[in-house]
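Entry 14. Ran structure prediction on the chain below.
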Amino acid sequence: MLKGKTVVLGVTGSIAAYKIANLARMLKKLHCNVHVLMSENATNFINPITFESLIANKCLIDTFDRNFQYSVEHVAIAKQADLVLVAPASANVIGKIANGIADDMLTTTVIACPCKKMISPAMNHNMYHNPIVQDNIEKLKRFGYEIITPAHGMLANGDMGDGRMPDEEILLEHIIREIAYEKDLSGKKILVTAGATREAIDPVRFITNHSSGKMGIAIAKAAMLRGADVTLVKAHTDIDAPMFVNTVNVTSAEDMFHAVTTRADDMDIIIKAAAVADYTPISVADNKIKKADGDMSIPLKRTKDILKYLGEHKKENQVLCGFSMETENMLENSRKKLVSKNCDMICANSLKTAGAGFGVDTNIITMITADGAEEMELMSKDAAAHKILDKIKTL
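Output, structure tokens:
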């Protein structure tokens, strides 16, 4: 995912420095070229050899170290970097960078880098909220630095408060969002639905389906990584919503209808990937469940057809994509749906095809438009999400 990309990690004097070794390892697993710069104080918390063993690059500390291959090392690394992340960033280093002080390899290189720069503050609660530190953070924001807000939790001294550096998985997500993909959807507002709606029969039981939400969430994440402003309307799923998307949690088909239709006019692209329950009990409040020949009989009515409504109210230049999961006559039924729902594209798949059903991590999708049908091979849902977005871009 990060092959051909170079990330520079700046590590300063904080107990949280140990987390960056794992971050460096995770970046290398994604085929990223990683350079680590350490302040002198950081070496008291973690040995440079740890990083060198993980990244296969010399860990740089001393600006005047002559044991390197470039004549001006901080400039050479600055030219290579696609992104710089200073994490953990101490109050001292934040103050130096904010005020243009370059008195070691780390600060000199950060100031020399023209690429995107991120700062992840890590310090005591009172230090973090000190007005001088906050002023320096605001100054960095004004100069285009991205500040990763520290977490609230137990700090190194045992106190509870702000100033804890986020876990390395979160730092990795910030890096991936910034450099993993071209931002070809920047400026686009995209709404995606995902998951399975639930229609309550009574306080205990409900009507639903087997949708896992994996495909819709993969699309939402792919669109976010490509720079779109993404809103995810999420029904039931065991999968967490991606970071950096606006998530609206819903339960029933009526909830989803309201969440989608009230936001539809602001969207450039709408992708309805959620599996909406077709029926809902007529009266949950009165609990009208009748027994017939010993079986439970529940009076039902159809839920609102969200995709049809969106097609009927589609604004000019808006792209509408629906999903069609069939057990037979997939192409024929999906083409009918394309027309009847006034969609620009239908993503169709068959429950009978291995690797394309509910709950799995792969899919085999046929993208159907007015111009024809394009069948994709078996691939991960993450890969399929990007193929779907590529096709939508051409509509």
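Residues 58 and 87 are 18 Å apart (CA to CA). Will compare against last week's run tomorrow.
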